[in-house]
Amino acid sequence: MEEPESGLAWNERRILVYSPEYGQSLIKSFNxxxxxxxxxxxxLVKVKSRGKIKSLKDLHSRVDVLVKxxxxxxxxxxHCIEKIEKRQIRKYKDRSxxxxxxxxxxxQIKTNGEFITKQQKxxxxxxxxxxVPETLVNTHDLVRCYRDExxxxxxxxxxxxxxxxxxxxxxxxxxxxxxxxxxxxxxxRFAMMxxxxxxxxxxxxxxxxxxxxxxxxNRATPNPTTPMxxxxxxxxxxxxxxxxxQYIIEMTSLNATQQKILELIGDGKIYQRVFDILKNHPNLxxx
Length: 287
Prior knowledge:
Layout: E1 13-18, H1 20-43, H2 56-69, E2 76-89, E3 98-111, H3 113-122, E4 125-130, H4 139-147, H5 152-162, H6 174-205, E5 209-210, E6 220-221, H7 226-231, E7 238-243, E8 246-251, H8 256-265, H9 270-280
Antiparallel strand pairs: 1-4, 2-3, 5-6, 7-8
């Protein structure tokens, strides 16, 4: 039961759910970070890097930075050691003989197995909350609903952080700010319509699309995002050449993946129609 300051109250169900597949993926990522952190810490005191460490305090500080970077706090017990060797430099010309100290550093790393095991056991667990009574939606259906949820916050994340980076925006007049946000919202709706249409069509056809992952053309997915789909069209170009009084229009030919995307959207001939428009109206120019 929640009782906020406003005086409103409601009953809330909280469901603790474990996903083995999700847990294993988190454990794999966690173990990779452990290995990467260990290698990075060991590199601090390699022979070629020793001159970079100024003091034992400096070494401790660098180790802490790496532990935080890889998010493995508490997973290692590290012991930093400084070895000081004195050596004598002989007299040379006007310089008198003197003793100098050379420092070398080592790091002993011991894995905190008990802490790591405890952390790994937590991976894969999630808490779902809902105010709908169990008589209307049982636990099984509620979990399925959560996992298939339409995450609208992801769409705004594209607009704010990823695709157009709306903030910070250097427009001072309120009416212009409002107009810009409305324009971007319309563009976002079109982008999400593309994503929805392609996913629904793939689901209907019981197939997956491949060729949209950079560096891995054979990787397929039934749930592509709009940025992934649009990225597949990079390199498309239009060339307009004037020979005497005649304009020659050339466009990049579509590959199989690009043509497939257009068909999934619902109009596989739209690219050809753009070419026909440009060919029949050569005076059209990019503004």
